[in-house]
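TL;DR need structure tokens for one chain.
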Amino acid sequence: MTKINRGLGLLLGALLATAAWSSYAADVTQLKKDAAKWVDSNTKTLEAANRKIWTYAEVGLEEHKSSKELQDLLKANGFKVQAGVAGMPTAFVATFGEGGPVVGILAEFDALLGVSQSDSPTASVGANLESGHACGHSIFGVGSVGAAIAVKQLIASGAVRGTIKLYGTPAEETGIGKVYMLRDGMFKNDDAILHWHAGDKNQVSYSSSKALINAKFHFKGVAAHASAAPSSGRSALDAVELMSVGVQYMREHIKQEARIHSVITKGGGQPNVVPQEAETWYYVRANNFDDAYLYFNWVREIAESAAKMTKTELDAVTIQSETHDMLGNRPLAEALQRNFAMLGQPQWTAAELAFAATTQREFKDPFGFDYTKAGISLSSNLEPLRDDFEPAGQASTDVADISWFVPVGGIRVASHGYGLPMHSWPVVAATGTTIGTKALATASKVLAATAIDLYTDPKLLDAAKADFKKVRVPLTWRTAIPEGQMAPKSVR
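>> reply
TL;DR here they are.
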């Protein structure tokens, strides 16, 4: 009899536990639906904010109006905003709630020089004649703010407990914002960080990125009349050009996946004056920071040699910033994948599909590649989560630096024509339309839902932290930025 009673007790306990879990799971699902409902109800507000930031198209460290637009939206929804953090006027941290868990969401909002574009599906100059959102950061910033506010509603109602932080991170395109915010202690005390990005597919970001060192080389020469007295002059521009030649020969002897690219930012005033000053700006990338640092020092030696050959002076080498290679977090990736699948991907109208198809046809690929061949103009499917963490791709991001200090997870949402390259005019065009609006709304929902999981499921948070520790412990952090160096005032 005792055994029977004990057996019935165990069975009853199991049934009650199952019922409690089912009720709990249903409650969490409802919270996610509530967050998504807030996004749907406020999409017009988010769309208007995106359109403003898209039109401003402000480049890194100059995103004053864009940063203010996001801050004002957060303040209007009850967040406390600390502006001008880490010595950057456009960087900010918005906070709501108290205690843990602390979940951070990243927002970017800088545009790119040289890609002005209207919201037309054919190449045309936009309102901002010098820059455009060719990496989709206008929707990135607004979509992240939408997620943070949706979560805030639940914290305010008492449905979840914890703190939500929205980090306004400027100048991602030069790898500056998050790096200097991190140096000032931000992010490190958070339990997890979430982010997203524009793309041509819907997928969880479970891959690494390239480490990067961003540096400017400044040469000084001697000015003289270029025709009447060239022997009296020493051309700083000659040093820049010889440096470039040396780097071209260097390329053959570095790892195939490394990348080095540059622009001349100062090249003299006019042709009849031997240039007294010249400056060149380099990005040195590799699949890990050690290789990037090795190649950067090689480039520095080439610059020193170029100065010797031209009897000029390499008077300044300024490492503006650096980024590391991204570390993955499997538990966060799986949580994001589940929520992406549950909440769905953007669904496109015939007009939106036609718009994207036109950009595919109109984009002039140097090799004549036909982007319409895939038969997809805009992706509406969710890519499967890859089994293994993918080695570094071709891009770099300062999100990666945060991943060395706290668990980080992110997604990409389809927001422009399938297959088209980032940093091109079709990305600018689509970002300013309803295509961009649908992408940012999707991101808001998925990030908010994953934040809800982190607040309500201690096992997920523990698993994310354990995975972070497993990946991070064998690695050694190093930096090339001089101690105490402040963030640059300009990226130009």
